[in-house]
Specification:
The chain has 239 residues and is an all-alpha fold. The protein folds into 2 domains: 140 residues; 75 residues, no CATH class. It has 8 helices and no strands. α1 packs antiparallel against α3 and α5 packs antiparallel against α8. The protein is rod-shaped and about 90 Å long. The relative contact order is 0.16.
């Protein structure tokens, strides 16, 4: 025999929540892997220009999320097994892991909120540098398919944009029209690249924010239920 009454209900509820937690870890792991290998972002962040590497903040964040997702899956399995086996040792270990994970998640959330625009700014700065050098090269040389012009073309074709702002977009379209440059995408876009870059990463951060909020709520309930179940197991007459 094991625990009875309300404690038995909490036991199966904790198992269910841990199963959801395990699934959430799998979702975060999957989202992080998708972000790490998402074609648009990969094509932009792989553009190494004249020894000046593109910003790596996004990849660092993605690797952290991959590690968090993997740890969550392990901890979720530990919680499921500890609840079913009614093991105080496993449940205590599970609770300690949850506290550490929750503290790390809060710290990561604060850092992410404070630096939510950092990656977009870094990528825009990298883009501006490439744009200026590409325009200078296109005006001063006849070779428009190498170096900065080639890197800039990847930005424009990937994001379907052109120019740093509306003014530079119009200027670049004019120079393309007269054959001075060959930079803007053939689709004839009317959106500048700063706007596209901001939209690109704000969409990704929105998905991550939802996932983190859901996981945080689940973790709070799991910490409460794991302690209640531990107390119920210790006070049960069959132990």
């Amino acid at each position: 025999m094991g625990v009875e009454g309300c404690t038995k209900f909490i036991k199966y509820l904790l198992f269910f929540l841990n199963f959801i937690f395990w699934l959430a870890g799998g979702v975060i792991l999957g989202v992080a892997l998708w972000l790490r290998h998402e074609p648009q972002i990969t094509s932009l962040l792989n553009q190494d220009f004249q020894g000046s590497p593109p910003p790596q903040t996004f990849y660092i964040s993605a690797h952290i999320l991959i590690a968090v997702g993997a740890v969550m899956m392990v901890v979720g399995f530990l919680g499921c097994y500890g609840a079913i086996q009614e093991s105080q040792c496993l449940l205590g270990t599970f609770f300690a892991c949850l506290v550490i994970l929750f503290a790390c998640e809060v710290a990561a959330g604060i850092w992410g909120f404070m630096n939510r625009d950092l990656l977009a700014k870094e990528l825009m700065t990298h883009y501006d540098s490439v744009y200026d050098k590409a325009m200078t090269q296109s005006v001063t040389t006849t070779d428009k398919s190498q170096g900065p012009a080639q890197v800039l073309k990847v930005f424009h074709e990937t994001l379907n944009c052109c120019g740093k702002g509306d003014g530079t977009m119009g200027l670049t379209r004019i120079t393309d029209l007269f054959g001075v440059t060959e930079i803007c995408p053939s689709s004839g876009t009317t959106v500048n690249c700063h706007t596209r870059i901001k939209a690109l990463f704000s969409d990704k951060m929105y998905l991550i924010g939802i996932a983190v909020l859901v996981v945080a709520v689940i973790m709070i309930f799991e910490m409460i239920f794991s302690m209640v179940l531990c107390c119920g197991i210790r006070n049960s007459p069959v132990y």
